[in-house]
Design brief:
Chains A, B: Keywords: Lyase, Thiamine pyrophosphate. The structure is a homodimer of 793-residue chains. By secondary structure, the first copy, chain A, is of the alpha/beta class. Chain A is built from 25 helices and 22 strands. In chain A, the strands form 6 sheets. Chain A has a 6-stranded parallel beta sheet with strand order 12-9-13-14-16-15, sandwiched between helices. A 5-stranded parallel beta sheet of chain A has the order 1-2-3-5-4, with helices on both faces. In chain A, helix 1 crosses helix 2 and helix 6 packs across helix 14. The first copy, chain A, is elongated.
């Protein structure tokens, strides 16, 4: 390997010694975490019983990350930078823990892990030990906003962190394995969405150590020329640091980092003080260093450093391993000269401790990475001001999303200085009919503009890129650093980020268990363009299953809302944007639809989350013959239409209408904090009467929530059954047997006491379904009685 | 806009006329599909009633795709190419339908859509009409293997199609919107995995029409220089075609395509006949043309062609739209001169019809795109030959995946000529302990190789890139073109492809409804490194919810298996690899674990899919006191350990052990083809006895499957509750209350008749749990009684 070198030395001999010693200390602590349960300072000869009986963890990436961290410390001090560190490669835990320990943050957060031999021993023992800490930069790690257990999101998180944080630099280490993922491959394009004046900067450090688990990596195995073109093609300016000889590498890294920081600050200066409005070509560092750098060269006769074999534990120590393994480990540990690094008590020697930045400049202590510390409440307008008048149920048509768009527009305009609220989406904000937001803001866009573009500006509150991964990653980064936001998406395609939601939900759950981590704003998904209204998109766009996915996560974290109309949507949106540390999923339609509740009634209904709509039912407070429940806008419409049919034809049937906004009300209160007690549930659904439940999503979800209720055997749920094509909303309900006619038939099938009257009505509804089929096949639209249907009280 | 031009003309005047006329015909048919319900040849003046009452669909991408298709037809004929067409941009339906109609394929597949005025009218009417065809290249479209409803997978599908198809060229149109997605952004790197000698070639055509729904696209708004660097950095050689003047564009496209095909064939020739083993720099076409090209320049005073306004319906025609809209539409339609293109009967004139390739060379007729036509059964070795000896239940430890790895190795080696089986995975084949496959094959890799690399070769049956999206997309493309395969992945991270699974399952469901589409091989997911064994990965790697996601899809498509041991896994794998047109999910562990069934018993058990393990129970065929059910390897182990405790301490309790391999046996036979009848279910689970069900995944899934069974109220399910960290498998079960001690306590809680004997045992088990906690916290491993536990018959 060759090393880029400069003729003029960048570091003095003393600086070189100090930065190398600091690096050695971090490497020593990393190896210690992997191996040692005793003798943490190697003050004794290494014995078998000093070594953990099970060695678990990952060495490969650690020395490279230690190298980067030490050099970032240097530039933080030299330039007085406000910087955080994102560890993209999986399993960089030993490195980030080592460094936050060395800089002192770790002991401040975890006082039991002291800066002495006892603390070191504890630090080593807890790593990858049952009940201890994991091998990633997990929520337990101070300074981390990115865990990296699942790979691919570091760069998106880094950009999310610096939006509207003009003083912040997010240093983002990207592993060359991670770089192969789709989300990371498109995240490089984030530079087209970052404003150099009003946002901070991301400094990516692409770490080419050449191997994944057991394969080489793509980016390490293309020519230098291809790699250079790729990064420049993505719009970055690369600075290369390549080699393996520590002193040369320190010099090269220091040079490259100084150049990169100068470059970065020049981009900011030009935008902030010279009126330069062009998109800068930001710097990126490419560090090529051996996997498992400074580790054993050979183990059991096979090359280790610089190969895939350095990925996890280079040398295994067990009762059956060759005795020379222990010697080899001892030599490896001593190669870092721990006696030079730690004093007699086990404390980092002062001249090395002085290498770290001070106070909140330490990357482990930066409050940005514990975003709840900085979180301010949104200035929230009164949502009832945006309510629409509903003189009588069903008397008004409105687009729910258009109405809430007005509310969002006001929130955006009321939270501009400092800006701490953004709307993210994959170019669907207009399609989702949130156009009102473009009355007060624009889409932030730093690539070229042309005549006839709309709502683009170099700074704006709406972030749109056709990548759900990017939208999610940006938003997560934005939230984790103490701001607020909303992701609006087509319902079906939100599954693209299922796994990212998983990781964020796990982060929230774990961070809630850490008293020093403050709560952050909730991750709010606003799903529209739903399964029932895919008139011109069809079957591929029909999937209401994200909520099934979400509710498997910890009950303390997840919330799901399906408001039946615009006023309810306003109330739900208000609630979600004020909430903390949840994942909220809101599902609502965008097409004009009948409105049911006044804004006051909506607020009351949404506060309860579930309730009887007495105005719609015919049970008059008495025990009903049947409960007709509904959840979601289209199911609510079909349920009310079904109730009208029953009211007209069988006025003596006592119907109770229950509407569900807060889906998790259906769970038992022992399973979810929002869940109803059995008594409350039974009071709504009865213990013995048939329940016909019209549900927005897959019907089995309601069964999964209610299987343990007294009335389970009477619960009959209609929902989406994976039947659909390009057709009308009403025909979609027919294809899935959720339409008014099927719902009435469901009721009739459960009320045999109606005798011939029921049978007669059932036959006439079956005829209606046939009529519908013929009519839509011929005319391509619904029968007038469907189109013109209106609720009559 | 500028147009690249060459001094020497490439097309003769007549060729230019013909290709332009063919393009006009396709454009005309595209506009016709969007607008017309009558007067399909415009033989009458256009009247309001000729226009569809609702105009749905997407114009923007169509003319560009028509242009590409016409030019591909030319090179197919000129070079006698075996080519298929993938329509990456969303909503290219009008274009691909138009072209397959023009070439005659459409009428062959759908005889009612004749090559005359009547057929044209039907063609137009069915588009985006309820019950008609959708606006994508859906399964209904002849020649399609890629629908494009959800964006991002076209290039991966294209590569999957050409692996082991050396004569095939997959022409892949990539929209510049789609190009922003993560999966597409990394799919460009597929060229590092394609062997030019043994695989076919992909010809990407990046179509820069500048806009998504309402935003510009990133790749259309960076400099030419950046775009060029990006594509070259990805390893491709771009050929540019830029402009809007049709004649110049035809010339430029013909030139570029001829050059690209020559380039591509030169790459193949070098690899196949000149011994060149280097990775070629394949050609890519970059076509920059206006969105909605040839459409109206302005509508309602606003520019349309070349802007985002051309995305869907440029001119709306309704009762309230301005009357000039109709005139404008008429002028637009007539601008293509339909009278020149179609004869008096409405048939494409012969000289234009002659422009299309013949027979199976037509891209709509290529049998590769109806893969079931070409599908051959795998040569399957007898799986029982790979069974391991199990002298007594629990007497042998083995890694299930290592055992099945031997079977997979034999399948790989038995299916090499022609090779039609591949294993895909994100660099986890070794980690998942399928190392036996590397005894017979390698990982296919065309990037640079170094000393110390392992199991890499320019041709091999294993495809590994650190992108689940790529693995899934490649495999789907491979299956859709008539081959077989397996995706092996960590269980938790398979959620990365949730949405891709959705789209594939929808494709399978729809294609089953089309008699002309033949069944293809099943999509097989092999999930290991499961939730229960994340000893050194921890919480981020724990998610068993993919099966929850899968079973929401159509019952006719999905199958889920959780074999309890290696012999069962062999039987299940054999079954899945022989199956057709399903999505099979197999979940199994990789760590050494007790083996329960002989290979014969395993075959019988897996054939049933669910059954009583009489050897484990104590009910002796009589009605039991309690049913202990288990599904998954770790739950089976804990259940049997719980049974041992009960057998030892309370030998009079009659226990029935039921093991579930085929999860969907739990559903009713009316809901799933594998489902048990109520009688069969009740015979296993009883109608009245407590059932303690130890489940591999989230416990609610079992409730969702069994809520409507007679014994629902006695069903008590233990599973993963989102509790976990770095710890032992046994401790993981304790954290989630699935361990043997909790299971016995669950039994005791339901058998009050045991009185003090039960209470005493319960207390001793609670003590055990405390002991466990202290032991593992101190020693980092399980108590000897756990480690040494063995089943005793």
């Amino acid at each position: 390997m060759e090393t880029d070198s400069t003729t003029q030395k960048h570091l003095t001999a003393n600086e070189l010694y100090l930065i190398d010693a600091y690096w050695r200390a971090a490497n020593y602590l990393s190896v210690g975490q992997l191996y040692l349960r005793d003798n943490p300072l190697m003050r004794m000869p290494l014995r078998f019983e000093h070594v953990k009986s099970q060695q678990l963890g990952h060495w490969g990436t650690s020395p490279g990350q230690n190298f980067i961290y030490a050099h970032l410390n240097r530039v933080i001090k030299a330039f007085d930078l406000n910087m955080i560190y994102l560890s993209g490669p999986g399993h960089g835990g030993p490195a980030v823990v080592a460094n936050t320990y060395l800089e002192g943050t770790y002991s401040e957060v975890y006082p039991a892990i002291t800066q002495d031999e006892t603390g070191l021993k504890k630090l080593f023992c807890q790593f990858s030990f049952p009940g201890g800490i994991s091998s990633h930069a997990s929520p337990q790690t101070p300074g981390s906003i990115h865990e990296g257990g699942e790979l691919g999101y570091s760069l998106s998180h880094a950009f999310g962190a610096v939006f509207d944080n003009p003083d912040l630099i997010a240093a983002c280490v990207i592993g060359d394995g991670e770089a192969e993922t789709g989300p990371l491959a498109t995240a490089w394009h984030s530079n087209k969405f970052l404003n150099p004046a009003t946002d901070g900067a991301v400094l990516p450090i692409l770490h080419l150590n050449g191997y994944k688990i057991s394969n080489p990596t793509v980016l390490a195995r293309i020519s230098h020329n291809e790699l250079d073109q790729l990064l420049r093609g993505y719009g970055w300016t690369p600075y290369y640091v390549t080699g393996n000889e520590p002193n040369l590498m320190h010099e090269a890294m220091a040079t490259a980092l100084d150049e990169a920081i100068n470059h970065l600050q020049q981009c900011q200066f030009a935008a902030r003080h010279e009126g330069d409005t062009t998109r800068p070509r930001w710097p990126v560092i490419v560090l090529t260093s051996p996997k498992g750098w400074t580790g054993p060269k050979k183990v059991d006769g096979k090359p280790n450093e610089g190969t895939f074999r350095a990925h996890q534990i280079p040398i295994t120590i067990s009762a059956t391993s060759p005795p020379e393994h222990l010697t080899q480990l001892e030599n490896w540990l001593r190669s870092y000269k721990p006696d030079e690094l730690f004093d007699e008590h086990g404390r980092l020697v002062p001249e090395l401790a002085a290498q770290a930045p001070r106070g909140n400049r330490r990357m482990g202590a930066n409050p940005v990475a514990n975003g709840g510390l900085l979180l301010r409440d949104l200035h929230m307008p009164d949502f009832t001001d945006f309510g629409i008048g509903v003189p009588a149920p069903g008397s008004v048509l409105a687009s729910d999303t258009q109405v809430v768009g007005q509310f969002l527009a006001k929130i955006i305009s009321d939270n501009q200085s400092p800006r701490n609220f953004r709307v993210f989406g994959p170019d669907e904000t207009l399609s989702n009919r949130l156009e009102a937001v473009f009355g007060v803001t624009n889409r932030q866009w730093m690539a070229d503009e042309r005549e006839n573009d709309q709502f683009l500006a170099s700074s704006g509150s709406v972030m749109e890129m056709l990548s759900e991964h990017q939208c999610e990653g940006w938003l997560e980064g934005y939230l984790l650093t103490g701001r607020h936001g909303l992701f609006n998406s087509y319902e079906a395609f939100i599954h693209i980020v299922d796994s990212m939601f998983n990781q964020h939900a796990k982060w929230l759950k774990t961070s809630m268990e850490l008293p020093w981590r403050r709560k952050i704003a909730s991750l709010n998904y606003f799903l529209t363009s739903t399964v029932w209204r895919q008139d011109h998109n069809g079957f591929t766009h029909q999937d209401p299953g994200f909520i099934d996915h979400v509710i498997n996560k910890k009950a303390s974290i997840v919330r799901v809302y399906l408001p039946p109309d615009a006023n309810c949507l306003l109330s739900v949106m208000d609630h979600c944007l004020r909430s903390r540390h949840y994942v909220n999923v809101i599902v609502a339609g965008k097409h004009p639809a009948p409105q049911w509740l006044t804004i006051d009634a909506a607020r009351r209904h949404c506060t309860e989350g579930i309730g009887i709509w007495a105005w719609a039912g015919t049970d008059d407070g008495a025990e009903p013959d049947v409960v007709m429940a509904c959840c979601g806008d289209v199911p609510t419409l079909e349920t009310l239409a079904a109730v009208s049919i029953l009211r007209e034809h069988l006025p003596d049937v006592k119907i109770r209408v229950v509407n569900v906004v807060d889906l998790l009300k259906l769970e038992r209160n022992t399973a979810h904090p929002h869940g109803l007690s059995d008594a409350d549930y039974d009071a709504l659904f009865t213990k013995t009467k048939p329940v016909i439940f019209a549900f927005h999503g897959y019907p089995w979800l309601v069964h999964r929530l209610t299987y343990n209720r007294a009335n389970n055997s009477n619960m009959h749920v209609r929902g989406y059954q994976e039947e659909g094509t390009i057709t009308t909303a009403f025909d979609m309900t027919v294809l899935n047997e959720l339409d008014r006619f099927h719902l009435v038939i469901d009721v009739l099938d459960r009320l045999p006491q109606l005798g011939n009257r029921g049978a007669y009505l059932k036959q006439s509804l079956k005829d209606k379904l046939v009529d519908h089929h013929y009519y839509i096949t011929r005319h391509g639209k619904d029968m007038p009685e469907i189109l013109d249907w209106q609720w009559k009280s």
